[in-house]
Amino acid sequence: MSESFNELENLKYVSVGIVSDEKGYTDKQCPSEDCEFLFKVNNKDWLNIFKDEAVWCPLCRHEAPAKEWFTIAQIEHAKEEAFNVVKGLVGKSLTNMTKNFNRGQNKKGFVSISMKYKGTNTRTFTIPAKAAEAMELDISCEKCQSRFSVIGSAFFCPACGHNSVTQTFSDSLRKIKAKRDNLEVIREALIAASSKDDAELTCRSLRETCISDGVVAFQKLCEGLYEPYGKSPFNAFQRLGQGSELWGNAINKRYSDWLTAEQLNQINVLFQKRHLLSHNEGIVDEKYVTKSMDSSYKIGQRIVVSDNDIEALLIILKKLSDGLKFGCSVV
What we know:
Layout: H1 3-10, E1 25-29, E2 38-42, H2 43-48, E3 55-56, E4 63-64, H3 72-103, E5 137-140, E6 147-150, H4 165-181, H5 183-193, H6 196-226, H7 240-251, H8 261-279, H9 286-292, H10 307-330
C-alpha cells in the first residue's frame, strides 16, 4: 500500500486555519438559528480572556461553548478543504501506484501493459479561511476589557455576557440618528417600490419612533446608573421632575445643572409628545397642554415630530448622559 493511502487510513481530522483581518480580529457567528449574528473578536483576547465553557452573542446573549462560534462560511470552507485533502491523498496515491506499476512492466515483451491516471488534484494541505471585511464599530468591554467589533449594535460582551448600559444608550442614539438621516432614502425607495402613500406613512412613523426610542433609552440608562443608589420607582426616569429629584438626592446634581432653561423646556415637550404618541395616538389632550406648556397646539390636534425635534432630543440626551456618567463616577 502506498504512503498516501497509509496517510488516508490514519487520518482522524483535518485542521483548517482561520485568517484574521487587518486589525487582528477573527470572525465569529452566533450559533442560534434564530439569530446567526456576525461579529469579530480580537485574537489575543480570544486566547487570553475568553473562556472555553461559554461565549455570549453580542446581540441576543445566546450562550454556547467557544467551539460552537465558527461562522457558517468558515464551516463550509473547512468541509471543502477536508474533502480536497482526502481527494488529494487518494489522487496522490493513485498517481504513485500508476507510476510504480508502469515502471515494473517489461517494455520489451510481446505484450506491453500500462496504466494512466487522469486525476489532477493531489493537494494534501489546507488553505486557511479568509477573513471577512473589518467591521466599523469597535467596542471594549468596560467589565473584562475584551475587544470585539460589530455592524450596527451590540448589547452584550461576548467574553463575559456583561450588558453595558452606557454602550446600549450610545447605540440607541446612533440608531435614532441613522433613522433620521436616512428618511429621504427610505421615502424615495418606497415611492419607487410601492406608493407615495406608503412612503409618507412609513417615514412619519419612523420619525415618531425616534422620540419614543430616545425616552426609553434614557429610562434604561438611568435605571442602570442608579442601581448603586437603590431601586428607583417604576418608570421614574420617564418623568423628568421625579428623575431629576432622584439624581439630586443620589449625586447632588439635577438636570438643571447640565441643561439651559430652554433645553429643559424642550426636553419636557419632547417627553410629553412621546406620552401622547404612546397612549393617545398623538392627539393633543388637556393633560398634554398642562404638562408641556406647549401653546403651539390646541386640544384635538395631532402633534408633529420634526427633524428639529429629533436633533434637539439627541443633543439634550447626550448632555444629560454625559453629566450623569461623570456624576456617578465621582460620587
